[in-house]
Every structure is written in structure tokens, then in C-alpha cells.
Amino acid sequence: MVGAGTDRTKPLFEGGPSIILVRPQLAVNIGMCARAMANFGLSDLRLVSPREGWPRTGARRKGAYAAAAGAVHLLEKATVYESTEAATADLNFVWATTARERGQFKRVETPAQAMPECARATLSGEKHGILFGPERTGLDNDDVALASAILTFPVNPAYGSLNLAQAVLLCGYEFFKAREGGEKPFAQDERSPPAQREMTLSFFEFLEGHLERSEFFKPDSKRPVMQRNLRNMFHRMNLTQQDVRTLWGAVVRLVEGPRKEIQTRKRIKQPKPAPQPAEDSAAD
Prior knowledge:
Elements: E1 18-22, H1 27-39, E2 45-48, H2 58-68, H3 72-77, E3 79-81, H4 84-88, E4 93-97, E5 108-109, H5 111-123, E6 128-132, H6 141-145, E7 149-151, H7 164-180, H8 197-213, H9 223-235, H10 241-256, H11 260-267
Parallel strand pairs: 1-2, 1-6, 2-3, 4-6, 4-7, 5-7
């Protein structure tokens, strides 16, 4: 669902490395990249010679804005350059993304390795940028030559092609994790404290008593092993007090059947409505 998980009352993260899309081919991919940037607080989108131009009106604009799924503020602020040199002129450090070795003797890092460095540098005031090439061919060697280091992705070598927005997403995720500490956005509330051993042992005795009466522990020689296996199964669950109460109640219902009040309601039949006398249709 578009917008699911969005809370506009929370502060909007901004900053991070500039995302530089070099000669992107499709307006919809630019929109998807903007969405990926917004997910992880990246706010500077730069476009180098988009193949379709940068659509401010018309069907292409509609496609890009729809794909951005609410991150239209990044599309509105996007800056367009005629060359990669111009798009990187004000940056202190540039990463070039590529799936293959280029023979340029530059440092090679993965996003997980590079983005902590990028986070520290940008927080101290440096300006970093990440170059992403055209969807079909990737960056050319002249673009890579402008970079300080190479960024590559550890993916299936038999299918190493990443969607443009996916590549932006991976970098954004690692950057945000490095900058914000990687803490979970929320945690599960503990609704019931862990069950004490006294409580679980009482449940075991209750359960095993009914299983014994149902001749579950057969043959008798295997009873100790079956009993240990059953108890270990429950112990591995780290049962809460509510878990034990729920299990206990479920076994009670299986043993005793439906509650008496339910049975009583089933036995009581509602009286059928008395037949209404037919109206006399004869005229007075």
C-alpha cells in the first residue's frame, strides 16, 4: 500500500550523499529512485542528461511522480546537469557504482563497507556523491574515472544486474543504518512476563495426566523419553504466563467439551411464530 508506514508527524531526515543518476533512460525509474532516497533520508537528487529530458509536464511527469509514491519533494528539487563533471564539481568525494572490474586501480568497497565512512564524512561537513549509470549499460569508463573509489554489490554472479532504484535503495539503507545506528524502528511489547517453572510444571502434570488416561504414553517403556520430549518442546518455546494459561484452557475444553452454558443455549429452541390469521378480503 502506498504510504503504509508513513508518519508525517515525525521529523524528515535529510542530507547524506548526493544521488547522481547519469543518463537515466526512464522517467519512472527516476521516480522510483526518489522513493528509495526518501526511505533513508537522502535529499539531493542530481540528474545528468536524462534520455527523455526531465519531465516537468505531461505523461512522463505523471509516471515519475506516481513512481515516487509521495517523495515528489525530491523530484521538485532535482537538479539537471549536462555532464558528470558538472554534477560532481562541488563534491569532495565520489563513489562510482559498477558491477564489473574496470582496471582503474581504485579502491573497491561494498555499500556495507563504504557507507559508514560516507556517514562520518558527511556528518563532519564533507560532500559525498554516488554515481549510478544508465539502466542498460551502467557507467562508462570516463564516468568511473571521475570517482574517488568504486562501489560494488555482492550479488549472484550469474545474475548481477540490479534495477537502478534497487541499487540506490541498497546504498541508502547502509548509509541510514550507519548514520542512525541501525536500531529497530519499533519493538514488540511484552504483554505477559515469562512463566515460572512452577507454573509450567503444573501445566505439564495436568497435561500428562490427561494424556496418560488417553493412553498416549504407549508402550510403557517409552514413557520417560516421550515425557522428556514433550516437556522440552514446550521449554524451547520460552512460554509466557499467558501462553501457559491459554494452553491450559485449550486442554480443558478438549477434555470437558463445550461449556455448559453453550450446550444449554443449543438445547433451547426458539418458539415458532404463531400463524397470523388471513385477512378477509371481502368488501363490507
